[in-house]
Here is the input.
Amino acid sequence: MGVKVGDVVEIETFWGSKEPDGEVSQEECYWKLIGKRGEVVDIRDAHPAFAQKGPQVLVRFFEDIGLLGLEVHNEVENGLWFFVDDVRVIKSV
Here is the structure.
């Protein structure tokens, strides 16, 4: 996997793509986060409903992503789960 808690990552894709393949509500258009950076604060082996997509990292962003109008509904303020394949490590701890 190569990603560790404390690593700084940049979002490269969301669900493996650079843009949605159809209409998406503004609150759920997480592709707006491509290019944004944050710190990995947790890791899980798989998404509860999409285990086949592999491990995920919980990224706490350095900027307030709520200002982008996105729905943020995680246990970590300003944090969202991403599949490991959607992030690039910028600075490793």
The chain has a mean pLDDT of 94. The radius of gyration is 12 Å. DSSP finds no helices and five strands in the chain. The chain has one domain: 8-91.
